[in-house]
Amino acid sequence: MNREPRVGFVSLGCPKALVDSERILTQLRAEGYRIAPTYPEADLVVVNTCGFIDTAVAESLDAIGEALAENGKVIVTGCLGAKGNTVRDLHPSVLAVTGPHACQEVMAAIHAHLPRPHDPLLDLLPPQGVKLTPRHYAYLKIAEGCNHRCTFCIIPQLRGDLVSRPIGEVLREAENLVQAGVRELLIVSQDTSAYGVDLRYRTGFWNGRPLKTHLTPLAAALGELGAWVRLHYVYPYPHVDELIPLMAEGRVLPYLDVPLQHASPPVLKAMKRPVNADDALARIRRWREICPDLTLRSTFIVGFPGETEADFERLLEFLAAAELDRVGCFTYSPVEGAAANALPDPVPEEVKQERQARLMALQAKISAGRLRRRIGRIVQVLVDARDEETGTIARSSADAPEIDGVVYIEDGAALPVGEFAKARIVDADEHDLYARIDSGKAPKRKSSRSGGMRAKS
Length: 457
Ligand code: SF4
Hints:
alpha/beta, five-stranded parallel beta sheet, five-stranded mixed beta barrel, disordered C terminus
């Protein structure tokens, strides 16, 4: 072959899977491979799959089938790869199958079927690695796996127990990202607040400075880099309280994505979620006293086996009391291999759908009320995109990319994409805010978006 070998890449699944894809792509580029934009241009194709719920499994199997039909040489990685023979049973001609978080195994399979080029150093690699997100924000994975055993989830089976990355390594990656132009770091893992537990919070080093492998010092150090730091999948352990003053001081974004899943004690017990809704409510109230600008996001599952109307109403009461800013709601669907499949009293599908609709209707009113309180304020925004139809689209501290609302800026045509700006909020609907950089009248509303939903943890 007298041109560089070319690899096509299909990346499916959650932000944790996206980070795995970015690692493999970075390694490919470091070794001198090219990334092919289409199937026919690729010498082989890697498909990073998701295996979380049935629709994700079907999507992943379809993507593998398409890559086989269009290209023929396919390596499969990701969560679906860890699920027994699912991939090989349907697609026996794939070249190799690995589980998630398996960059080295994927590279070994690629080397076996598409030898690496002779002089990889000729290819210049950006210091932040290859990213699939826009240049101005990036996901930063701080740990892999999970020590919980929630009965609806098979992540621990797929990814194993918690393994935290060394704090110095995480901070060096964050520094590289910020130096490369990243303005917002999105901190992800299966259970972000458990960071360091497996390492017994041992002391690591960053630029010669000793730091405990623990979420609080990590968040504080990330806050020194000059980028927005947004925390996702923060299970409400008591030490999460330590993060709130950092938010009140503006060192990390006043935003917490806290996966609660339910509020009724019997359902939480059946889910094996060791959270108590009354404690969570008390904690939320305390957090808001310390940091009134705090935006809280959570996800919930309705129609879990055994959920009664009374359990569901308990959840609605919790939502009314907690007044969360952003909420995603899933109807329960059994995942192959999950312990919850053996639970009695399944909830009929139409009841699940009806409960989901009731929950989202209540939350829409709560969200609209929370957003209305921001009208008149001048806020810092990060400009994401400019679109002919919708104008300039930005996000405030309250809006995580892809899952939350946005800030439409009608007179923002001159604002550079990927940079911070200040804007005055002039209107709000259930999901989005409307702003101007001058202080003029309210612009027209653009759309009615559905509430963002992101899976589990
Ligand atoms: S839902 Fe989240 S916390 Fe529970 S087992 Fe799965 S990954 Fe762990």
